[in-house]
User: Which sequence fits this backbone?
């Protein structure tokens, strides 16, 4: 219940409590939003019952990349022939079967590229070539000239804007006059290309999304009648959201309206062509397919006029990520990206869906922890089910798809900065160096890391992580206080240990019935350094002949608890080093403590010279 004494803020679903300042701000901002109510208002769609909200995407639509036409016309520097060719070959290799290759009447480069296809071996037989033209006789003729002799299936794609603002301001025609202009163009297309058996036709009422639905329907039906659309020679009706102006549900309604009401529906391939002005081009395309669209035009990674055409890569990989085969090969997404960036001379954003440099990377601790656990579960399930990891159902949290599906490795998945936690740190050391850290050690190490990242503010690479690990655990504090271990002889009968104290005296002791770690702690106790090893963990760094053993110990001294590590080719020496390193911290803490327990961190700075190891004999 909202108290009447308390200010409220209006929301789309009623008033909610809010503070007075927010309330005042909300009454009026400086934005002149009222200017946009009429010009770009959405059209009214006469649809009362809609099926699209309950529909599901179960198969890929027909994809038509228009990078070489719509994408190209949006570039500051349109593609040169070499770039066009490389891009075209990429699209063919990825599996696209229908490709809009240009606007042959617009430029010699576009014309020549179509001729190159017509005269050469560039396009495999099963690839349909689409050429684009306005409804102008001279330009239609030139377009048809460009495709002479081509062996491939061809689509001649004719367009004219049909929305009121375009009719009034750009073309200067009312509805009837514009219909006549369009039909004249359609007749020209028929006259020049109707007799070519490998040619089909496409019509786009440009700015369909701002065209009155009844007029869009009238024009489209008139065109399919004139072109005599049949199941054998279907006509493509492409309904563009040329400038995206409304929420995606409105576009879905518009498409469903056309889908239900078009004449010759079974002789029409219903196509959509969303742009991305509101940032919802993807949603428009997906909902349009739910609403009846069978074909989608767009650009790979979404180049195109203003904010771009709909991004075909994201659309396809969205399908992939929900278990539907996109029918296009994205298994080397970085190579695709390199070619697209080269052709367009535009870089992709690091957070671009599926392909950006950072889209498979987690910096934040809880995400890293979840990913690490997800990977561990994935590997364990692969072993348990005896299946290759690449074939298992994917359940790793925060990664909607397995980066390996896109040809990416796992190196970039976890990166460490001040937002990271123990999980990410452990993951990086394990994947880069093979060092496996026990959970309690991870917690301790994460504190060291946090100090480092808080003060530097920067990202930490795996190599820096290893150095911080070495400084924190492998390098004993200075000055040295623990007697030097000069002899360590272990046999079935027992262990003899010699320690040399600072005054040069040697202390030899025998230890029967205990392991090497316990023997050393006993020997240290005899020279006054009491240390208890609470836990001992073995791991290694590196692989094969280049690997070193690492021993991690959790210890308790008189006034200090903590972790220490030792590293050596031999497991025994690594273990003894870890104990001596712990003993150094205990001795330093005893020297420093005035009472109470201190942690290893508080016991003193560690020197960075790793040659200072006091273990000599083992
Ligand atoms: C939404 C889209 O992506 S549409 C595609 C847009 N792409 C491009 O424009 C790139 C290629 N375009 C070009 O190279 C040139 O604009 C050309 C060759 C097509 C035409 O050039 P020009 O003859 O110099 O005309 P210009 O571009 O200045 O103006 C367009 C004219 O065509 C008319 N027009 C525009 N679209 C169409 C159309 N689809 N059908 C018929 N006429 C049209 C305009 O009303 C204007 O007529 P006007 O001169 O009588 O006022
Ligand atoms: C004319 C069509 C296909 C177009 O490019 C657009 O509307 O953006």
Assistant:
């Amino acid at each position: 219940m909202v108290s009447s004494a308390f200010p409220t803020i209006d929301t789309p679903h009623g008033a909610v409590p809010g503070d007075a300042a927010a309330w005042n701000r909300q009454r009026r901002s400086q934005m002149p939003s009222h200017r946009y109510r009429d010009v770009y208002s959405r059209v009214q769609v006469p649809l009362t019952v809609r099926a699209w909200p309950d529909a599901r995407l179960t198969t890929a639509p027909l994809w038509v990349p228009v990078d070489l036409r719509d994408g190209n016309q949006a570039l500051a520097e349109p593609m040169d022939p070499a770039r066009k060719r490389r891009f075209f070959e990429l699209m063919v290799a990825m599996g696209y079967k229908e490709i809009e290759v240009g606007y042959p009447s617009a430029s010699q480069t576009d014309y020549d590229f179509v001729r190159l296809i017509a005269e050469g071996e560039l396009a495999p037989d099963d690839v349909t070539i689409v050429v684009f033209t306005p409804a102008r006789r001279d330009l239609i003729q030139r377009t048809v000239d460009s495709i002479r002799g081509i062996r491939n299936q061809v689509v001649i794609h004719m367009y004219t804007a049909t929305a009121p603002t375009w009719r009034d301001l750009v073309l200067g025609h009312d509805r009837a006059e514009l219909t006549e202009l369009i039909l004249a163009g359609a007749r020209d297309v028929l006259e020049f290309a109707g007799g070519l058996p490998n040619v089909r036709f496409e019509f786009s009422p440009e700015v369909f999304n701002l065209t009155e639905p009844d007029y869009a329907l009238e024009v489209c039906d008139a065109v399919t009648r004139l072109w005599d659309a049949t199941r054998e020679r279907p006509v493509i009706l492409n309904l563009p959201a040329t400038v995206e102006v409304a929420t995606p549900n409105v576009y879905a309604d518009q498409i469903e309206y056309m889908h239900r009401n078009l004449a010759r529906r079974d002789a029409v391939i219903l196509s959509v062509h969303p742009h991305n002005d509101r940032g919802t081009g993807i949603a428009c395309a997906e909902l349009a397919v739910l609403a009846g669209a069978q074909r989608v035009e767009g650009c790979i990674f979404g180049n195109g006029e203003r904010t771009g055409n709909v991004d075909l890569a994201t659309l396809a990989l969205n399908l992939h990520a929900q278990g539907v085969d996109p029918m296009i090969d994205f298994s080397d997404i970085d190579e695709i990206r390199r070619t697209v960036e080269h052709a367009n001379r535009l870089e992709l954003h690091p957070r671009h869906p599926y392909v950006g440099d950072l889209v498979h990377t987690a910096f934040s601790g809880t995400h890293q922890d979840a990913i690490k656990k997800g990977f561990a579960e994935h590997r364990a399930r692969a072993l348990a089910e005896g299946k290759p990891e690449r074939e298992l159902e994917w359940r790793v949290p925060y990664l909607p798809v397995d980066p390996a599906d896109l040809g990416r490795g796992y190196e970039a998945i976890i990166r460490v900065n001040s937002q990271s936690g123990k999980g990410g740190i452990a993951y990086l050391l394990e994947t880069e160096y093979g060092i496996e850290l026990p959970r309690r050690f991870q917690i301790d190490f994460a504190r060291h890391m946090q100090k480092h990242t808080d003060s530097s503010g920067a990202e930490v690479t795996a190599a820096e992580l290893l150095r911080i690990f070495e400084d924190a655990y492998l390098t004993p504090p200075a000055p040295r206080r623990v007697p030097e271990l000069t002899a360590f002889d272990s046999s079935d009968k027992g262990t003899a240990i010699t320690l040399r104290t600072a005054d040069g005296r040697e202390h030899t002791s025998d230890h029967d019935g205990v392991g090497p770690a316990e023997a050393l702690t006993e020997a240290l106790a005899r020279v006054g350094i009491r240390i208890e090893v609470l836990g001992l963990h073995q791991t290694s760094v590196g692989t094969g002949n280049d690997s070193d053993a690492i021993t991690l110990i959790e210890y308790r001294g008189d006034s200090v608890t903590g972790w220490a590590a030792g590293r050596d080719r031999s497991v025994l020496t690594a273990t003894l080093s870890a104990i001596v390193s712990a003993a150094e911290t205990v001795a330093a803490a005893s020297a420093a403590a005035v009472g109470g327990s201190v942690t290893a961190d508080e016991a003193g700075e560690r020197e960075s010279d790793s040659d200072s190891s006091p273990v000599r004999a083992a």
